[in-house]
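INFO  loader      accepted 1 record
INFO  loader      residues=256
INFO  predictor   begin
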Amino acid sequence: MTPRLVKQLLYGAFYLLIIIIIFWLVYILFLKPAPTCFDKIKNQGETGTDCGKPCSPCEIARLKPLMVNWAVSVPARENEISLLAEITNSNPNFGAQAFSYQFTIFGPFGALLKTVKGQSFIYTGEKKYLIEPPLKINPQDVSRVELSIEKESVVWQSEKELVKPKLSARSVRTNIADKNITVNGLLKNEYPLLISQVKIITILYNRQNRVSNASFTTLTDLKGFEERFFGVELPKDENVNQLDLNQVKIFIEPRP
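INFO  predictor   done
INFO  writer      dumping tokens
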């Protein structure tokens, strides 16, 4: 190998190194994705992968996600449906002060009919129900309903921060009239403080243990230790004789 060839190789290696450094700097400064709390990489001073400062505490990162048990549509008024879903928070020491969800309604052959978005909350170790007001969709057009919860939207709080007020219902009665079904009762605030809003969800089941109907009502400004009448009205249809009135479920949802 001649001295001239060696010199050319050294110059070539030098220029190649310069080009590599330039490309590396461009990538670092302009192209490399910024670190986040969801990139599955332990970076930016995190004490664990995607947890610890500046991300959420690792205790929260290890929590079990909210679980969707089922989602259905039920007949409401004529040519309308209501959406109902059951979800579970299996974490005994943490609840979700807020989270976002989406109902997706499918028609025949999997065609998308509509999406409905909302926000809610759930207390520690709780099973709860999400219900939407009636939508103008013919029940016969619905093939299935799905519910998804946006994991990144969940705002976790400890049981000391997210305290569930204690309420009780008594004298609950179900009445079947000509055009509707009503579930009435008395709701008492066992909590010494005012509760700004309480949603009362009523679910009816048929004799095959399937959800037949559902509706809700809302009480506002329930004072400490106050007892108040509530009534939930549900539509009556041709399947009323198949209802199992021993399985009327009432879910009381006090807003934190």
